[in-house]
Design a protein that fits this description.
By secondary structure, the chain is α+β, with helices and mostly antiparallel strands. Helix content is 41%, strand content 26%. The protein has a two-stranded antiparallel sheet. Strands 3-4 form a two-stranded antiparallel ribbon. Helix 2 packs across helix 3. The radius of gyration is 16 Å and the shape is globular.
């Protein structure tokens, strides 16, 4: 039976899914830039959440080079910036679609480490 692992916005079709496939999918997902629609949704929901995402982006990239990188299309706000302080692994769980494919949902929680 062929299954699909959804990672980073694409489907990987194969008979077996390895832990490497899962890790690569998580990495690709968090490296993807968030869209203008996603930014507008976050901003409409909470100005505070929007500010936290921008702060996380500045911390990741550095404030001096961010403006240049965004203007060159090299960098910008990515999904990794939406984690806030949720950096501890909580788990993965599959969600099945009616067509027999599935995707994994990733759970993160606030780390207890200082």
């Amino acid at each position: 039976m062929e299954e699909a692992l959804q990672g980073g916005g694409r489907h990987v079709r194969k008979n077996k899914v390895t832990s490497g496939d899962v890790c690569w999918g998580i990495y690709q997902f968090f490296q993807k830039a968030i869209t203008c629609d996603e930014v507008n949704l976050i901003k409409a929901r909470s100005e505070d959440d929007y500010r936290k995402i921008l702060e996380a982006c500045y911390q990741r990239v550095g404030p001096h080079s961010l403006v240049w990188q965004i203007s060159q299309g090299v960098q910008g706000v990515k999904r990794i910036d939406c984690r806030e302080d949720r950096t501890a692994w909580w788990g993965l769980w599959p969600v099945w679609a009616p067509d027999g494919t599935w995707c994994l949902h990733l759970g993160l929680m606030v780390s207890s480490r200082a």
